[in-house]
Structure formats: structure tokens, C-alpha cells
Amino acid sequence: NSIILLPALSPSLKVRGTHPDCSIVLHFQKREAECLERIRSESQTPAPTGQEGCPTEWDGVSCWPALPLGQSRAVACPEILNVFKKSKGLIQRNCTEWGWSLPSPPYHSACQLETLGSSNDTEAKARHFVTMKVLYTCGYSTSLAALLLAIGIFSCFRKLHCTRNSIHIHFFTSFILRGTAVFIKDSVLFSDESIDHCTMATVTCKAAIAFFQYSVLANFYWLLVEGLYLQTLLLLTFTCDRSYTWGYVLIGWGVPMVTVGVWVLTRLQYDNHGCWDDYSSLYWWVIKAPILLAIFVNFLIFLNVTRMLAQKIRCPDLSRTHKQQYMRLTKSTLLLIPLFGVHYVVFALFPEHVGVDARLYFELVLGSYQGFLVALLYCFLNGEVQAEIRRNWGTWQRSMESNVFNLATQDFTA
Description:
This protein has 414 residues and is mainly alpha-helical. Helix content is 67%, strand content 5%. It has helices at 2-16, 22-43, 107-110, 119-156, 163-190, 203-235, 245-270, 285-314, 320-339, 342-348, 356-368, 370-380, 383-413, and strands spanning 53-54, 57-58, 63-64, 67-68, 72-76, 90-96, 99-100. Helix 4 runs parallel beside helix 11 and helix 4 (119-156) packs parallel to helix 12 (370-380).
């Protein structure tokens, strides 16, 4: 009977991806596991002699408890949101000499499915998600190229080697990991359309999801480090001790590592089904809570830095040069702190199945260009970086002109 129901659900499953439609498949898997566990426990307890009947049975949709011979039992339609219409009809089965009778009436008659979209709607959704994938692929590719170039600039020029730019490089690296993790996850989950993504449970699949969660966490925590470093600079009046650097590294890379480690162990122990990408799981809060904490702390830093900056700028004893230095150091981070994670907080207040399209658009399409924005603010629009590039470019031009002059002179004298 499950063969009758699942094909009717498959168009939605293929188009909308793993969520929230995979929750339907997981619902039936959970009910089946509960029923099979009941069957195993009953098989260990021998039935009294002379008491014949039908044993507990899973028919693919419902679990039918054991029943004495000649009796009947009725069950209601499964209660699954957005799948079955509310129906008061009951399905009945009898325990006969030949075992359980067929369901009467059949599931497809007694349980009315919600009206699914037409084939045109399905094709439109498929085109929509293909377009979205193209957009975020272009976004992550652009971000990766910009971030790699920015890291190269900070690494090549000796005068740019400092604690602040070292933290920027770590922040850029977290974005590179995030973009790479998205490409790896797509290649593992959706490279083969014949694979059932709802029931995929390979080690490679779980490792790809774990790596993705780690990169997302690292991304948020390195933004937190950027905020902490800015606040420390303002508190210590630009005399930030290098001894803090290892603490920043432990926060940026260590906290996500510990969090993902706890999440992996929790899933292995208590919820080891599927590919671990079911965000409706209660254990998803092991990942979500630290992210929300980082966003909340960053927001407090944002308010505190804004207050400190206003006080220092209004200070009459502060020179104009120092005021410009404060403004230059704070404008990028103050822009990024509210920009990053605001939508995450908004969506965290709603269930995962609410606002799926908007959530995907913000997290995939707009989120894919965040790395490019970071490279732009911290590197390409940085006056210090621009001045160093112009100075080295001038030195290189003078060197080339000198080499050409020497070569021409040698040819003339020859």
C-alpha cells in the first residue's frame, strides 16, 4: 500500500529537495521502526497455547497490533501536515484463518491526498531552483576568486603583515571553506538524480554535511572575532597585544570544532538516520544555539563599539588624524555585524518549513556574495592596501623603465 502513496508524493519530493518533504518519508520510517520494534518484543514472548490470531504487522503505512482470530480493527488515516486532507474515514482489517485481510476501504480511497501542483507548477519550480543554483554558484565563484586575491595581497606585501590583517585572512579563509563546503555538499547530495536524497545515509554524505556545518559556524565565529578585536583596539587605544591572537584562533576555529564534534557524537548516538540534513531534528539546536549566541554577542559589541566611537569622536582633545583612524577601522566591521546574521535571527524564530523560498534566497543567493563583500570592504577599498599597491606598482614601473633604459644604452654603446 505504501507503493500506492509514495509515487503520488514523489513529484514534490524531486522538486523541492530534501526539506520539508523528506519529513514525510522520515515520518513513515519512524513509524515503521516503532512497529518493527514492537514485533521483535512480541516475538520474544511466546503466545499462550490455543490462542490463535494475527501477529502485529506493518503494511507500509500503518502498524496493525496483534488481534485474535475472527476480530477486526480499524485505524484512521495518517496525520501528516500538507499531505493528507483531514478525513474522518477509517480503514478496517479483519483477522482471518489466512491472516490479515486487505485494508477496506483501500488507503487511496479512504485517505484523500492534498491537491498537488500540476506538471506546469512542477516544471516552474524545477526551473526556479535551477536558476537559483546558477545564481549562487556564480556568487560563490566570484567570492572565492575575490577572497583568494585578497589573501594573496595581504600575504605578499610585508607592510600589510599585522595582527589585524592576520585576523582578516582567517575571516577570508572561513568564507572560502563555506563556499567550498557548498560545492562539496551539492556534488555529494545532488550529483546523481537517481539517488533517493531522503534516505541517503552514506558516510561521505554525513561528512559533507558535518564539514558544511563547521564552515558555517567558523564563518560566524570569525565575524565575532572581528568584533572582539575592534572592541579591544578601542579599549586599549590601538595598542593591542599580540598575545590575544591565539585566543582569537581558539574562538574562531576551536569553538566550531568542539560544537560540530558534539553534534556529530549526538547524532551518531541518538539520531543517526538519513544524511543529517534534517533541520527539523531537535539536535539541530546543538548547531543553531552557538550561531545565535555569536550573533547576539556581536550585536552587543556593535552597540558598545558605536557608543565608544561616539564618545571618542566628540572628545575635543582627540586629533583629527586619530578621529579618521577610528572611523577607518570601525566602518567595515560596523557594517558587517548587522548585515551578517540578521536574517538568521529572523528565520530562527519560525519553524523550518515557514518561508522556505525566502530562507533559501537569503542563505544561498545573497549569502553567496557575502565573501565578495568582505574582500571588498576589508581589502580592495582599504586605503592602506591601495596605498601599498600604488607604491609597489610605482616601484615596479620605475624598475621596468630602468631596465629598458639600461638595455637600450647597452645596444647603443655596442
